């Protein structure tokens, strides 16, 4: 395989993972937390980037070395565990895809004035079209890359317009100032960011894409590692740029509209042009997440049935259609989305824990020796995320259902 072609695949997998993470929830979280913690939110971003890299490097390497998808690895660790993991991933992917479809509809609403429901249906047709072409994998990769660059470029324009205090943001990223009564919420923000970046289906998006494209085995580990870190860094660039855009607005003493925080960031920073830019960014973020969620969720059940494997493209289409029908007929089930978001934080320590055990089973990885420092890094991520996710589930989630 040519190196240039390989690099295209690696970049495609990195962007598929990154744009899967950058969805409507990503935009809303970043704007909301910036309003809450101002420059100190930079520390949350930095901490989440480190945890994200630790999780993703481990997971992608073990998928590549074992040459198996995550659910099959899990079933080899403990029979039946792969089915549980697949169930959690598909449930979370479907719930989030309802939100992604809604976000795409909102983007079209802002741009063209059509209803969010009509925009959602048109967006779903575009997403379905990607999977129905012959070279679906290549089209998906290129689609994610182009819209990824569009999102970052337009948000960078808004960040420059809002003139944020960059020096303070850098300083507070290492030495945050957080009132004691906000500390629990501050740590919960880390869980939310990590869960939203490498939780649930997202961290597997690129790993499974590389496997499908034949980039696997010990010989390809340097490329797999480069691609996995690139995915996190692309996501981080978008997060930082959006954070700076929101920080400029907050530092100027302007209040965000909490019914739609990211839209108000773009509008307050750059006026009506900014609001249209938000429409493009929201649509690009949402439609790429629709594609990533559908592709990855279905990749978790493909190996369970020859019929699903044979007709997996149509299963992906069905996944998108169901997400769209639920949004158009029921709307966004907010409590369900929040609950699944918190569960995504719990899926990460489970899935990463499974991978770390698998790394030391020769029947799965053969003669491969997993680096000790990566194991320690991974165990640290599992411990931190299990603890913080547990606290979130026991203290924050019950408040939703009172």
From TrEMBL:
One of its GO terms (molecular function) is cadmium ion transmembrane transporter activity. Pfam families: Nramp. One of its GO terms (cellular component) is plasma membrane. It comes from the Bacteria. The chain crosses the membrane at residues 37-55, 76-98, 110-134, 146-166, 186-211, 232-253, 273-301, 313-331, 337-360, 372-393. One of its GO terms (biological process) is iron ion transmembrane transport. Its main location: membrane. It is a multi-pass membrane protein. The keyword Transport does not apply. It is found in: Membrane. Keywords: Membrane, Transmembrane, Transmembrane helix. PANTHER family: SOLUTE CARRIER PROTEIN FAMILY 11 MEMBER, TRANSPORTER PROTEIN. This is Membrane protein.
